[in-house]
Amino acid sequence: xxxxxxxxxxxxxRVPAITGRYEFLSFREPMQGRTWLAGILDKVASARDASAxxxxxxxxxxxxxxxxxxxxxxxxxTSLATYxxxxxxxxxxxxxxxxxxxxxxxxxxxxxxxxxxxxAIVILFARDVAERQRVTREHQAYLARTPGVExxxxxxxxxxxxxxxxxxxxxxxxxxxxxxxxxxxxxxTPGSGAPLKPGxxxxxxxxxxxxxxxxxxxxxxxxxxxxxxxRRLEEHVGKFRDFLREHGKTPEExxxxxxxxxxxxxxxxxxxxxxxxxxxxxxADPQRNNNFNYKEMDPHGYAVPLGSHIRRLNPxxxxxxxxxxxxxxxxxxxxxxxxxxxxEDGIERGIAAFVICASxxxxxxxAQNVWINDRNFHELANEHDPIIGTQDGTLEFKIxxxxxxxxxxxxxxxTTLKGGAYFFLPGLxxxxxxxxxxxx
Length: 440
Known about the structure:
This protein is α+β, with helices and mostly antiparallel strands. Helices cover 27% and strands 18% of the residues.
């Protein structure tokens, strides 16, 4: 039985927010960090409360910590040593494994995200900008009364127009394929797969292989917690549009190339089901837009190229052990919308997202290393993920025949990693435990 009252809302609840803010914090002394945490505990929503008050609430708060941050709160060395190695090392040290090289290297990150002083993140999602600003002022006033807690950086989030559905700055419909967790009561949409064991995402529960093992100690600190990989990706919208115009003679050809890179039309319609022409009604229909496979419906990639983004991030029936690789994704866009006919304006815009899982190495790092940045994925020989993979100008993207045949060489980078970090998202009981460590 899932303990909804103890799980932070972000793991299980998609809230109706169109804006938000991330604040990245550092604690000078353990007592100061614990005092700050104790003062915001009552504002952190559980999955139970967020779901019950979804229509009434105007803001939703979550809190998570780096491994260094747990130590900065006073967690002892014995407990810290029970966390997995990849979390202890942190994302900066894992750059080579993750493919964070060149312009994506941590040396180039912004916002102090590569700093060893990064201890915590406060995640705010808000129903509107006025509420975001109100909560921000409230937190700033609280920090002014709470010495020893420094905001290293912050990032304001804003949905991009039109606001009738979630999408990134490139225009691709988002939030189309998420795993369903057993015990939540949610029913998977057709083609999304059966519900997965909670332990694939939340510590303390059975996973797809059996009972939980090797959990961080003490149990109160790990139970109902999850690991989060944070990635801030700048999206080069002007460069992307220039690329489409360079390789497509007509607007229809340009849209098809955009669809081939992703594996879906920007409306969300999958190419497997709409290979030659966009079908916005299909893209907007959750009962149909995931109801496809690759092994029988598109084995050679004539519809969805073998190296396309969605084929890499969710290989469906063409991957072994897929249920152990699934991840929950949360986040939002940041930066202003670039009007359709506008030139690149030099303003940063992109998507700042979290991957939530029970094992960073088995889920997130596997996806980065084997699916996103493996040149030989599906024996393609010289490709990375065309949307979020590391690109250095030497790689290509192959589009099989039917209806067009293309081999694009020198694929540019459409995204650049501006920062990232590994966080642990504790349960609410664990947050209270952390806030009162001085009494133990």
